[in-house]
Amino acid sequence: MAEEILRITGGRKLRGEITVQGAKNSALPLMAASMLCDGETVLGNVPQLTDVYAASRILNRLGFRCKISGNTAKIVSGEGETEIPDEDMRAMRSSVMFLGPMLGKRKRCVITMPGGCELGPRPIDLHLDAMRQMGVQIREQQGKIVCQAEHLHGARIPLPFPSVGATENVIMAAALAEGETVLTNAAREPEIADLAGFLNRCGAKIAGAGEGTVIISGVKKLSGTAYSVMPDRIAAFTWLCACAAAGGTVCIRGTEPKDMESCLSVLSAAGCRLGICKDRIYLDCSHPLRNVRYIRTMPHPGFPTDAQALIAAVLCTASGTSVIEETVFESRFKHVGELLRMGADIRVSGRTAVITGVSGLHGAEVEAMDLRGGAALAAAAAGAEGETVLRGLRHIDRGYDHFADAFNSLGGNAVRRVISSAVR
Ligand code: UD1
Fold first, then answer.
1. What is the pLDDT of residues 194-249, one digit of tens each?
2. Ramachandran area for residue 292 (φ above 0: left; ψ -120 to 50: alpha; else beta)
3. Which domains can be identified in the chain, with CATH numbers?
4. Can you tell me which atom of ligand 1 is nearest the CA of 127?
5. Would you call 208 helix, strand, or coil by DSSP?
6. Whose CA is nearest to atom 12 of ligand 1?
């Protein structure tokens, strides 16, 4: 069987600039939200990702017309199915985000459990409980979750945990529900404000998105519009981390630095020099870096769980000991075993990783076990002596638009190759 790999030759400084891609975690909910709109929605700055194509497939199966060309997605309203097939639910773990808009628009949605995933179990109880509070009846039938609302109405919904996906689902369902919804302990990730910005432009009445309390006054109808997806803060951080791991100077354009404060302050604590100029971030880094004593992942504005593996790759060669505690997901240290193959010194106990800096990493054959863990291995490989062979590219393709091209335009040396798996 053939398999694609990335050969990364490391050990030389990065130098270059890049305009960051549109945000995966905004493009996906915006595509789902376009289901609520009559007429045509045109989304710009959509990254070319396998998750985006999976979302497009779901839209088409449900009777919408979604066409992606380059970085533009056109979605036209339509009638059709209310059931998302199991294979689509599995293909993209975040397919649960179609639940809210389907209920808002068609008052019915049948899904299956997104199931366990590479980050540990990914329950959807918070989504379902919130929908129940809005008048949705939910029953399980032959492994399917059938959600139906005779009368979808606003409600006061306190979220037990500020789940990003549950916050988005409530906002999307409530946009066309009757009356007012007050969502408290809402997630404050910037992608939520982007979603509300889009829906408001379509005619919705949403206040407070991006803050802990979001108030949605249901309207009768939303109309499609043109909207540009916000920049991807985790992709921007990926390129900064690659430069921090390898040393050098890079400029990341088209970013929103205020959304990245917790990430930037950690890089600066590690000894990187940062310059911020409107939508550009400059990073200048010479080694050795310093350890960062303690990093704890938290919902926004805390340090993002999606950035955890990336900073770990950087701290592998910082002097001294760094501690990272993962509080958001149960199992998010699968990259650690691969970093050990590259010469890192990391011990994991439960949800904590203790990284003791080594003088350098070396290339090795490693495998991406999840999206950000895979990107972290590439960042580590940029700074490692010799060649790294990175497998498991399907994870990276879910979230990075032409990863190798972007990496190389920053002075990296990555070549994508098809190999026969037998040769591995
Ligand atoms: C989103 C992001 C993902 C990011 C995560 C946390 C998208 C497409 N994905 O995922 O990249 O890592 O936010 O910032 O935007 N939980 C429950 N029950 C639920 C829902 C969530 O227990 O019903 C738990 C999860 O298992 C996890 C935690 O809450 O431990 C955070 O999940 P959540 O914020 O919902 O993440 P996602 O929306 O899935």
1. 999 999 999 999 999 999 999 999 999 999 999 999 999 999 999 999 999 999 99
2. beta
3. 2-20+231-420 (3.65.10.10), 24-228 (3.65.10.10)
4. 23
5. coil
6. 306
Give every residue of the chain whose pLDDT is below 70, as ranges.
Answer: 115-122, 421-424
| Nearest by Cα to 312 from 365, 376, 253 | 376
Please give all residues whose beta carbon lies within 6 A of any atom in ligand 1, as ranges: 25, 28, 94, 122-127, 161, 163-166, 187, 304-306, 328-329
Its sign, for the CA torsion 299, 322, 269, 400, is negative
The pLDDT tens digits of the residues spanning 50-103 come to 999 999 999 999 999 999 999 999 999 999 989 999 888 888 878 999 999 999
Ligand 1 atom closest to the Cα of residue 128 is 23
Q: Which of 37, 109, 117, 263 is catalytic?
A: 117
The b/e string for 166-188 (b: 16+ C-beta within 10 A; e otherwise) is bbbbbbbbbbbbeeebbbebbbb
Minimum CA distance residue for ligand 1 atom 16 = 123
pTM metric for this prediction: 0.96
Q: Check residue 142 and report its DSSP letter.
A: T
- Tell me how far the alpha carbon of residue 164 lies from the centroid of ligand 1, in angstroms: 6
Nearest-CA residue for atom 25 of ligand 1: 122
Residues 189/25, Cβ–Cβ less than 8 Å: yes
Taking alpha carbons only, the member of 404, 395, 391, 410 closest to residue 3 is: 391
* E runs forming strands in 160-219: 180-184, 205-207, 214-217
CA of 129 to the centre of ligand 1 (A): 15
Residues in the chain: 424
The C-alpha angle with vertex 291 and arms to 289 and 292, in degrees rounded to 5, equals 125
117 is catalytic: yes
User: Looking at ligand 1, which residue's alpha carbon is closest to its atom 30?
Assistant: 329
